[in-house]
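job 3f2a | input accepted
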Amino acid sequence: MESVEVSSANIKEEFASRYNMPGPNTQRLKNGINIDELKKGVQFELQKRHQQAQGDVGPNSYNDEDILNYLNYECIETEEDKTPFEIMGQGMSSIIDDNSVLKKITRPGTGALVPEGATCRVHYNGYLEYSEEPFDSSRMRNEHQLIRLGQGDALEGWEMALLTMRKGEISRFLMHYKYCYGEMGCPPRIPAKSTMMFEIELINFIDHKVADDFQEATAEEKKTAPFEQILAVVNAEREAGNDFFKNKLIAKALNKYGKAINLLEGVNLGNEQEEFIWKQALLKLYLNTSLCCIKQQKSARAITYCRKILEFDDSNVKAVFRLGQAHYQLGEFEKCRSYLTRALKMAPNNADVQAELRKLDTQMREYKAVERETYRRMFGNQEPSISVNTNEKRLYTDEMQQDVQARLTTFADSAIGELPFPTQAMDDAERQCMEHVCTELKLAFKYDGEGDERVMKVSKSKA
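job 3f2a | predicted structure (463 res):
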């Protein structure tokens, strides 16, 4: 494990890292340091560096066009003997007793205030006095910032600020240096004793307290928990899943929905009202889960959840539509068409269903063309001959068998569920060869239709 000598620069860099201000040489401490020992000199171990998803962002990571969009000239405007932040603070109200954190709402939010321990999803710009350029900006990175309150993820001033906000709110905060980077600052980006102005947009927040408290309960307490408590935990997990889904974190969303489903499917219901609420909650979760499965190409799992939905509500258009999508992914086009047609009858003006049917028609035309070409290649150049076996007459050649075997093996490994062959164009040798190879490859086959419409259907289900 690497060891290094501590210097004031090391400490400032670590301080910056803890508060989401990474520098090019930032490293996290494995363990805390003792200030008294620091005066004498101390060694410490470094954690492996945490690589942010968007990469480390330094002060020069933004281009000129980005910066121009977020210049704030109020940060440099003075008035007689007043500084820019003193002028700005005149129109703001204090959120703590010592007036060290001031706030002004520029766009009101809705709903409840952010609770303690919540995870907040925010956009922000941060400014220093006498500088119109933001020193840090999630907007210029084009990536939301996730902050879990009470976990040391944010500046102390941010912790206080976020607890005063509502979903959708945009507010401006002036924060005294003691609630930001302290007396030392974080040179070169943050000078010593820097008061800061942040423009913060609270996009969403997730209240973890109910779910966290439930996880800490004993097995017996969970077993005897009332339905209202279980429902509150389920709603918290579902909201967390929804937030992950909106931000395209599908696997994490599935995990949250799965936890909520497991809780609901194992709950004891006391009356009809609880059963009604239980069904509605499960329907939402099954729908959300089926959509995630479609997006992750987990088609069989999506079908399972859609069928569960239809057990509760056989006229649910979304479930029928997603069954069509799932069968399309499996290459089961006839089943896909059946469900999509059913969904269209239920919702004739649904643009998504109409678009999916058009997509299916295009795919079917391409599929038919491939089918014809496959058939032509399998039999187009073959000339049947008779070869006598001691046990039975064999009507096909070795060359024909090898060709058919290669084609049907490709089908067996594909996503297509069924492959029809018109029998009108087949002779006895070709039919015998097809049946023999299907048996060898453990593929099912059957004959459907009459006359010119008669086809041999090969499928992956063992007959």
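job 3f2a | The CA atoms of residues 299 and 329 lie 7 Å apart.
job 3f2a | closed
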